[in-house]
Amino acid sequence: MSGFMNITVSELHELMDKPDVQLVDVRTDAEIARGRIKGAICMPLHLLPLRLNELGSGKTTVFYCQMGGRSAQAAAFAAAQGLHGAANLQGGILAWAQSGGELVA
After folding, report:
1. What DSSP designation does 73 have?
2. What is the 8-class DSSP label of residue 34?
3. In what order do the strands lie in the sheet with 21-25?
4. How many CB atoms lie within 10 A of CB 10?
5. Domain CATH for 93
6. Domain around 25
7. Which of 1, 54, 62, 105 has the fewest CB atoms within 10 Å around its CB?
8. Is 65 a catalytic residue?
9. Considering the entire predicted model, what is its pTM?
């Protein structure tokens, strides 16, 4: 068992307005500067081990990156460290943008 969920863009759209959901963008600062999903916490993957304790417990935590590879690593790491409700956005921010999802600077 992987310890984390994979969710689709459609599922994320349904979760967006819930108070018990947090988004974490694990891309590099340069990638984040090109746009991110509104409300996302910016936490590059290499800093996740140092900053994991900043994430709220008791929430669904959706990690995303450009295409879903790094965020799957982040979700697996977070779940292994005891973060319940870790999820990976399949297809990453590219899938989000292609579905018409809003990006902010």
Report:
1. H
2. T
3. 5-7, 86-89, 60-64, 21-25, 41-42
4. 10
5. 3.40.250.10
6. 5-104
7. 1
8. yes
9. 0.95
Mean predicted confidence (pLDDT) in 9-20: 93
The percentage of the chain sitting over the pLDDT mark of 90, rounded to a whole number, equals: 90
Which residues, 6 or more positions from 49, have their beta carbon under 8 angstroms from its beta carbon? 77
What total number of domains does the chain contain? 1
For residue 55, what are its two tokens? 């994430």
Q: Which residues are CB-neighbours of 62 under 8 A, at least 6 positions away?
A: 7, 12, 15, 21, 22, 23, 24, 87, 88, 89
- 87 touches 6 (CB < 8 A): yes
Are the C-beta atoms of residues 54 and 15 closer than 8 Å to each other? Answer: no
Check 65, 78, 83, 86 and give the catalytic one: 65
**Tokens coding 87:** 């999820």
Confidence of residue 35 (pLDDT cuts 50, 70, 90): very high
Residue 1: per-residue pLDDT: 45
What sections of the chain are H helices per DSSP? Answer: 9-15, 29-33, 48-51, 69-80, 92-98
> What band does 57 get if pLDDT is binned at 50, 70 and 90?
confident
